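Progress report, Aim 2. The chain analyzed during this reporting quarter is listed below.
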Amino acid sequence: MVAVPPQNTSRTCPCCGHIAKENRQTQARFACVECGFEENADLVGAINVLRAGHARLACGDASLVGASAQEPAEATIREQALRVAP
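Predicted structure tokens for the chain:
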């Protein structure tokens, strides 16, 4: 997993790269005011998140792979400790 900043992911046109709040006129619809590309807004956001993740990996930011904002549960930590104990 790669962490990607969510800012403007659903306002950025995946075709021309134009970023504008006007690109997202409704919750469900994306329509680029620059090039006219239209698609479901969630799909556009997913495309942009995927591209941003690929870009981070391509730039060698491998420290983000497997990153998680959630810390492991105490039981998980205890189980790991028991596995490595003699």
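Residues 67-72 have pLDDT under 50 and may be disordered. Strands lie at 29-31, 38-40. These observations will guide the mutagenesis work planned for the next reporting period.
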